[in-house]
Amino acid sequence: MFDNLQDKLDRAFKVLKGQGNITEINVAETIKEIRKALLDADVNYKTAKAFTDDVKQKALGENVLNSISPGQLLTKIMNDELTQLMGGSVTELEIGKNPTVILIAGLNGAGKTTFTGKLAKYLKEKRGKKPLLVAGDVYRPAAIDQLEVLAQQVDVPVYTNRDSNDPIAIAEEGVAEAKKNGYNVVIVDTAGRLAIDEALMNEITAVKEATQPHEILFVVDSMTGQDAVNTAKTFNDRLDFTGVVLTKLDGDTRGGAALSIKSVVNKPIKFIGTGEKMEALDVFYPDRMASRILGMGDVVSLVERAQQQFDEKEAAALQKKIRKNKFDFNDFVSQIQQIKKMGNMKDLMGMIPGVGKAIKDVDIDDDAFKPIEAIVGSMTPFERENPDAIDQKRRMRIAKGSGTDINDVNKLMKQFNDMRKMMKQFSNPAAAAKMMRGMP
Ligand code: GDP
């Protein structure tokens, strides 16, 4: 996400490195570089110009304090301005009405159906809602099937009417069904097209009028850059939507859509999709995104993702096991699964300040855990619960069973034992303190 932009902004700031003050001359050069970086990221020209003019004016108006360098000052100004550019503060979803109707709009392939599933999961698990999905794409039976599969995954019901080819009636029936059966959010997935056409716009406008939605979310593929911005503009002119959902940000290294869409259509980005899985949805926080773009990391989101996976009771039980030296391979695998649930590895590491840039070109394999899981998978239940009983003969059998090498099994056993020792030490405060004192 935003890799190239990060790199180029970094270079732009270097112009100011070693300079004692911000002057008309050195700032002009930096601003030129920043503008170039934004244009390369596929930011709309007008947006880039207005943005850099603003940054320049602010930079020249500030006195550089002794404690900070011109580079630091400019980073701060950029952080504030990027936050503003992307909408300032977070814009919450309006979900107070009962039922709340949310209409999902966008072109085919933008990620509407995927987002509908993700949103249902988010509303159910994070906001305590009881959602009902409505399959409103009457043109592609496969789209209804896809929505049903996703709905099943997130355990939320779908209203379908395969005999009807009237999306307006289906949407109305869906809302009536929700009222009747006590669902407090109705998410209507609508049909898309390959490109904008009049019939599509008329249809979705009619669905809007019939259902009077509280939120109309426009879903768009961020990888299409300026096209995404133009499509957003056309949809907004007709639909007057309430928010934007930018999908596939995990594959978009330029980030132009995220940076320009708010200033062009003047509607907030409410969510971003960062993967195909149902968990890969984030509420959009302009300030956190600005920090990420500037390579300052996004620790807040990282901690939040960790907290989502954190179950206090489970953690207490685990602590007890560690203290008693009973941590076994079942616990080990369940820890790996929790980490995996937090999302894509590279994306997670990118949230750590300073790390994003460092691992930009490193290929981080999300399947890195696979051999470990295969090895543990080849252990018998007895072995998993009694790691100390795994002798050489058992190791040979495990290697064979998991299609790995005996060295891989030995390595994993050593890592596991080292980890267990360390965890035990840290779970005992007195021992941990003793160990710390022994450190150089
Ligand atoms: P629709 O035609 O608008 O309903 O689009 P779909 O929901 O069918 O999505 C089209 C494709 O994009 C599917 O293969 C999805 O798995 C994929 N997709 C959707 N959202 C994301 C995302 O945030 N990241 C990635 N990498 N893929 C996504």
Structure, described:
The structure is a single chain. With 440 residues, this protein is of the alpha/beta class. It is 57% helix and 9% strand. A hairpin with a 7-residue loop joins strand 7 and strand 8. Helix 1 runs antiparallel to helix 2, helix 2 packs antiparallel against helix 3 and helix 7 packs parallel to helix 8. The chain is flat, with a radius of gyration of 26 Å. The model has no long low-confidence stretch (mean pLDDT 86). Guanosine-5'-diphosphate binds next to helix 5. Part of the signal recognition particle protein translocation system, which is composed of SRP and FtsY.
Question: What characteristics describe this protein?
Answer:
21 helices; 434 Repressor (Amino-terminal Domain); about 10% strand; 3 domains; about 55% helix; binds guanosine-5'-diphosphate; 7S RNA binding; single chain; Rossmann fold; about 450 residues; nucleotide-binding; hydrolase; alpha/beta; Four Helix Bundle (Hemerythrin (Met), subunit A); signal recognition particle; eight-stranded mixed sheet
Ligands in the structure?
guanosine-5'-diphosphate
How many individual helices? 21
Helix content: 55-70%
The 3D shape can be described as flat
Largest sheet: 8 strands, mixed
Q: Say how many strands there are.
A: 8
- Encode the helix/strand succession as letters: HHHHEHEHEHEHEHEHEEHHHHHHHHHHH
CATH uppermost class of the largest domain: Alpha Beta
CATH topology of the largest domain: Rossmann fold
Query: Radius of gyration over alpha carbons?
Result: 26 Å
Q: Tell me the distance between the termini.
A: 39 Å
Give the amount of beta strand, in percent. 5-15%
The CATH architecture of the largest domain would be: 3-Layer(aba) Sandwich
CATH H-level superfamily of the largest domain: P-loop containing nucleotide triphosphate hydrolases
Read across the widest sheet, the strand sequence of neighbours is 3-2-4-1-5-6-7-8
The low-pLDDT segments are none
